[in-house]
Amino acid sequence: MTRPGRELHPGAWWTWALGLAACASATTNPWLLVLLVLAAGVVVVLRRGDAPWALGFRYYAYLALLVIVLRVFFHAVLGGDQGAPYWLDLPSVPLPEWAAGVRLLGPVSASTVLSGLYEGMRLAAILLCVGAANTLANPRRLLASLPPALYEVGTALVVALTVFPQLVESVQRVRTARRLRGDAGTGVRALRRLVVPVLEDALERSMTLAAGMDTRGYGRSGDRTRGQRVVTGALLLAGLVGVGIGAYAVLDPTTPGLLGGWMLALGVLLAAGGLVSAGRRVRRTRYRPPQWHPADLAVAACGVLVAVGVQLVAQSDPLVVNPPLGDLPTITLPALALVLVALAPAVLAPPPPLDAAAPADEPARPQGALR
Amino acid sequence: MIELRRVGFRHLDHDGRPDGDWVLRDVDLTVEEGELVLVAGRTGVGKSTLLGTLNGLVPHFTGGELVGDVLVDGTSIRRTPPRELAHLVGSVSQDPLAGFVTDSVEEELAYGMEQLGLAPATMRRRVEETLDLLGLAGLRSRSLRSLSGGQQQRVAIGSVLTMHPRVLVLDEPTSALDPTAAEDVLGTLRRLVEDLGLTVVVAEHRMERVVPFADTLVVVEPGGRVRSGDPARLLQDSPVAPPIVQLGRLAGWDPLPLSVRDARRRLGGLRGRLGELPPADLPTVPGEVLLRARDVSVAYGARVAVDRVGLELRAGEVTALMGRNGSGKSSLLWALQGTGRRRSGRVDVDGRDPHDLSSSEARRMVGLVPQTASDLLYLETVDEECAAADHQASAPAGTCRALLDRLAPGVPGDHHPRDLSEGQRLSLVLAIALSARPRVLLLDEPTRGLDYAGKDALAGVLQDLARDGHAVVVATHDVEFVAEVADRVVVLAGGEVVSSGDVVQVLAESPAFSPQVSKVLGEGWLTVPQVRDALEGMS
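Predict the joint structure of the above. Result:
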């Protein structure tokens, strides 16, 4: 199968990954979590490009492992007594009166460790899903598909992404140059020798960049009245508060249902209104914005399907989604189907365009002679 | 197209009071549509300020006080910020990489049009046209950082051309480029003027490349006054002049020749007066070998930057290291100094290898002035830097200052190193390197940002150092500077030595490396002073 490589719409990858994350957050079944993470991993390996950001999945995996270990550790050390059987009998540390409800050490039961493990795995799975999105989607293209009102923020982030490698290069160059002045000394003075030239360099560069952007028309804007600005600001702020409260309510099952769904919807609506209002003044256009093709839609749909599917499974087989600690967790066919859907983008998405850099026809300029 | 009416400019301090003298004063200038204007002048006289008034960066971005008025296509820049002029004036800076906003060629070309709010179909068409016009089509999806210097500068030009400006302003567009890449960029400019009828204003140190096709020359003089007019007439007494013009002045040609071809056609009389024989260079007495390098290789991962280079540096000799951008010059210098990495080979200074020594011992054997000389400076005043240098070199107090006074007399001690001129800052770093008393001195691209007089001064300093028994190596792109200062030339390509030998012989071998004087007078003649000496010797 020789399909031409193409970068998927970053929104598609993010929808898929967030769908998987939503599914992971809804379950503590270790089998399901492991399978979900595996599915995400397979898609990452098959569909990531060769850009710098695409090589970071490993670090998310390390972080996820750390999360699990920490979670189990704290559960064992601080977690409540959940009854026999006990695995390890640690002496309990008596705590003063005001710390009632907190337990330090004491006997460690199997269920304490298991619940720590399951929750740690859930957190780790969510983390890995976000990591997968970061690995698969080009962050710059994601920024390019932001609504026009967020253009300034997007530009600032793009510039930061560009400047960061330059800063690293500048640090390396100055560190080497420093040795030309003899032994570097230690402590604050040595740091100063490094920091002063690097900061001066960075400042000079940012002034050049700012001047360059100014002469190229950045910030050309139509006129807006004060009233319009106030309305836009108010809409955005109210929307943010609404989305915040709504999201909290949806995720925390103890809040009344009315607050959750409706608040979230209202918040989204207000925020959208604010963005439209802010975007109206913008007279910019986009050169070749990322577009939604059938494959992109299919990948996004997979994410939505997984997120919705897990809720359905939870209603029909609650014990599969949230297995009791005492028994060996089981998995059913519908749950396995979810994993298959999560895995589908490995086939649905077109392969990434590998090696964005065409063969060099002129020698590349050395990026500082010292690396 | 452009009209400056009694323009003056000066900086203001924090309290809004004038800070220093006028940078520009009483400038009257008119540029017609489709003209190519070359702005020249000594380093730091206000060329950049003059260019800045054309795109509105002065005073809107820099601050300061602007008097008089600047009209571009009838629009006064006093009331219009740079961004609202973007469709009218395109600006290209010295360091293209620092001005790039996006990360790929295509997006960079489109960026300005996005700001103007052009329709997507128009943007697509103009990007394609510009890719073809500048010969960038093969690079469209490349990352900007992976391009060579010349390619980057062409992208920077393209990124303003897509906005279809009426005026193009370029501030030293080729100062960081090797001769071939510079030729490439200037050739592009010439085509833009001829094919598109663009009005181009360019400041350029290497005047010899632009003068032949400039319609108007604008000379900015110290004190901020400006003279403008026909290049051949103005160059008769301009403080900066390319070698060919200096030759013309010497020979008394009128009008002055502006290109090598002009000069060759007027040659007759001069050739006769000089006689057939090229002047015999004083046979340089080869001193002792101070540094001997054998099979030095440097590699970054899989990329080999320097490939088994052997080199001998003798006392009393200035060696020029040439080669295009990325040919391994810097890597070789750093490897010789001992601080840079080295994959294999040996460097022998006084029976020891600087690579095995601590950095403070290595700098006593070999001194290095890096490409960005200011990386070495981190203190607030020149005096503090000098004191720190004495301390680091365990030299008696005042050593560095004495060296500095010899290299560049009169550098104020209480100034911040960043406020010095390029030449003064270079001298300061050179003095710091010399205060450790190394016998071997390496300089990486020291002529960046220096004008003709600054280069002459530097050449004098380097030759003095050689006479004192130092071995000096200069890595540079500047052919005229090499002709003036070097005894030997080593040319690198792809990390290997492709030719090496006496300066006359190497420079004559390849047309890309021959200085203007030698193109006119033929092999053997390298610099204007040589010709002057020959003429004086005859009379």
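Chain B has a mean pLDDT of 87.
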